[in-house]
Structures are given as structure tokens and as C-alpha cells.
Design a protein that fits this description.
Length: 182
């Protein structure tokens, strides 16, 4: 774990299991690593990425969290990613053109451990080339992705997803709710 975190601090990218699917990630504080993820996926930088946080405190350090968001997180049966307005302290490449950021407060123990030791959120995007289906297990991850990342976590070999993707909800400061993906 120490070695993985040190490599992430140095700007490396990883293939790792999340609370939903296999993901490609890096430190959400490293602009160069974020750009590398866009390149690995052949993804236009206009399509924003999501980040994972390990605690309510980390979430509140980045965005103002409306009360409704806590209720949605408490009562949703599967992982939920919420799009918040006006993030702070993140590289511009993570922030969408409308000044929003998609964040998931993860329950996954491995992700929480990485984030906690890194002391920063991590980027989380599906481990596929842009436009391709999201892989459910390691053997479905293309060689271009596996060879493109710097680290492939050992846990990827035995990973089996409990969820195919997170629910994505856009939540404005005025409590306007828009379901992006169920």
C-alpha cells in the first residue's frame, strides 16, 4: 500500500477495483496524471471525470454539501455519484465547463485506504477506451488500458463487481435534482 500511494504522489496512474467497476485512477491533485488518464482512454478533456473521497470531511473540503445530498447518500441502495456546484481546491481539468464536479463518497475499503493514505481524492473513471463498454472483470480490460496505466493493483485479478455503475445525480445548491444515470 505504501508503494502504491508513493507512486500516486509521483503522478502515476492505476487500474483498480472500485465500489462499482474496475477503474482507472490517479491522485485528483495531480494535473499531469489526470491528463495521462484522458490520453489512456482517448477521452476528450471536455468530458469530465469523477473523483472518490473517503470521508464526509474530505467531501466538505471540496464542495458545499446540500442537506439533500446526505439524505440521498444515506438512502440509496447502490453507490451514488453526486454532481456538485462550485468545487474548490481541484485542478481545472477535473472541473466541468459549468463549474461542477462529480464526487462519490466511497464505501470500498481498498479505495478508502488509498485515499486516506494519499490524503487526497482519487480520480475514478471506467477502465475502458472512450466509447467502449465498461469492463466488469480484468480479462475484459483492453491491453491498451492495461499497458497504458503505470500500476495494476493485484486486487483487480479477483474483482467481481457488485454494481455495474453508480447512480449519478446532479444536485444544485437550490436542491434541484436531475437524475443523469439510474
Amino acid at each position: 500500500m505504501h508503494e502504491i500511494v508513493e507512486q500516486l504522489k509521483e503522478g502515476k496512474t492505476m487500474l483498480y477495483p472500485t465500489d462499482t467497476i474496475l477503474g482507472i485512477g490517479c491522485s485528483a491533485k495531480n494535473e499531469e496524471a489526470i491528463q495521462k488518464i484522458f490520453d489512456i482512454k482517448n477521452r476528450p478533456s471536455s468530458k469530465s471525470l469523477i473523483i472518490l473521497v473517503d470521508s464526509p470531511k474530505m467531501l466538505q473540503d471540496i464542495v458545499e454539501v446540500p442537506e439533500l445530498a446526505w439524505d440521498l447518500m444515506d438512502f440509496n441502495e447502490k453507490p451514488i455519484t453526486i454532481i456538485y456546484d462550485n468545487p474548490k481546491g481541484l485542478p481545472k481539468s477535473l472541473i466541468a465547463e459549468d463549474n461542477t464536479i462529480a464526487i462519490r463518497l466511497t464505501d470500498d475499503l481498498l479505495c478508502k485506504k488509498i485515499i486516506g493514505r494519499l490524503n487526497a481524492p482519487i480520480v475514478s473513471t471506467s477502465a475502458n477506451l472512450s466509447g467502449d463498454p465498461s469492463p466488469k472483470v480484468l480479462k475484459e480490460v483492453s491491453s491498451a488500458i492495461q499497458e497504458g496505466v503505470d500500476i495494476v493493483l493485484e486486487e483487480c485479478k479477483t474483482f467481481e463487481p457488485q454494481f455495474t455503475a453508480s447512480t449519478i445525480i446532479k444536485l444544485g445548491l437550490d436542491n434541484e435534482v436531475k437524475v443523469i444515470r439510474e
